[in-house]
TrEMBL record:
Annotated GO biological process: glycolytic process
Keyword check for tRNA processing: no
Function noted in UniProt: Catalyzes the interconversion of 2-phosphoglycerate and 3-phosphoglycerate.
Protein name: Metalloenzyme domain-containing protein
Residue runs in coiled coils: none
UniProt organism field: Rhynchospora pubera
């Protein structure tokens, strides 16, 4: 068992006759009893794994009950932390690397460990980004600078990347990378916490970070040695009214960096500050009564008529609706056919 991010941890069970096809112990709702893992098929492996996980769950509770922190909490009349909710069981599989599949040298900034784990499984280098925490305290500027540095090498020193098994960062590719993935988790957290103001302010902060990333990349592209493309999307919605993941198609935006700069105006990009800024702090659960937006004039540059980034607006876009498995194909086709 290893600590991950916020309240999360990773639990690894190794041995023969195991399966990832079991349910979890998390009831997914407050004030409900802890569940028992159940096999999701009739195989011996699934039944065996469910039994192992249920036994593990009992042992975790025994250890937690006797922990000094919990004993102190009990003496103070406070609730104790006596369970670990186990969910999302799976088995790591061998898959072709991202580089082999797409012919690109990839890197990512992903302090959220489940995302970083997916990246490592695909052979994607995990970049160091000081102050990036994967929660509300994260420094978005650090993420933008880390990705930009990796994508502008060799004009920059080699970025530092995570080395699995050594728990530290070492110099990455000297020649740099040509695909960067920047993950932001805090907006999802605000949805789970039903913190409407925080989610709005957080999205405004993401806008600011996108501007910082664009400025850094544009400085490199202006040298004539690089050409960049920006893609903004998500993996799911987390509505504040619901407080959990939902199933709406997510918006997807793709453009050449030069077109982005042309749309917002290079003079506006020049004044973007590259100073670090924290995500706004708003208490979870606070509801908003009125939000005043001043977006200015929204115009699309070219491609289609969409000028806003949300589920409803994106549905009118020229790409229509497509499964996530086609996303990289869409991106590479756009790069090849439009600007080769």
């Amino acid at each position: 068992m290893k600590y991950a991010t916020e309240h999360k941890c990773g639990v690894v069970v190794k041995g023969p006759k195991l399966s990832g096809n079991i349910s979890g112990t998390d009831p997914l709702k407050d004030n409900c009893l802890l569940l028992k893992a159940q096999p999701l098929d009739d195989s011996f492996e699934a039944k065996n794994t469910a039994e192992v996980v249920n036994e593990l769950s009992k042992e975790i509770t025994k250890i937690l009950k006797s922990h000094p922190i919990n004993k102190k909490r009990e003496e103070e009349g406070k609730n104790i932390a006596n369970v670990v909710l186990l969910r999302g069981c799976g088995i790591r599989i061998e898959v072709p690397s991202f580089g082999k599949n797409h012919g690109l040298a990839p890197c990512m900034v992903a302090p959220t460990k489940i995302i970083a784990g997916l990246g490592l499984s695909l052979g994607i280098d995990i970049l160091e980004a000081p102050g990036a925490t994967g929660d509300y305290r994260t420094l978005l500027t650090s993420k933008a600078k880390s990705i930009a540095s990796a994508l502008t090498a060799p004009s920059q020193p080699p970025p530092r990347v995570f080395v699995p098994g050594e728990e530290e960062f070492k110099p990455g590719r000297v020649e740099g990378y040509d695909f960067g993935f920047l993950h932001i988790k805090a907006i999802d957290d605000a949805g789970h916490d039903k913190a409407t103001i925080l989610k709005v302010r957080g999205l405004e902060a993401v806008d600011q970070a996108v501007g910082q990333l664009a400025k850094l990349l544009w400085q490199a592209e202006a040298s004539g040695s690089f050409q960049y493309y920006l893609c903004v999307t998500g993996d799911h919605s987390t509505p504040v009214e619901y407080g959990d993941h939902s199933f709406e198609p997510v918006p997807f935006a793709l453009c050449r960096l030069g077109d982005f700069v042309g749309a917002i105006g290079e003079e506006n990009l020049d004044v973007v500050s590259l100073e670090d800024f924290p995500l706004p702090s708003v208490a979870a659960g606070v509801q908003i009564t009125e939000v005043k937006f001043s977006p200015g004039t929204l115009v699309s540059y070219f491609g289609d008529s969409v000028s806003e980034f949300n589920e409803i607006a994106a549905a009118r876009g020229c790409l229509g609706r497509f499964p996530g498995s086609e996303m990289m194909g869409v991106i590479k086709k756009y790069m090849k056919t439009k600007y080769e």
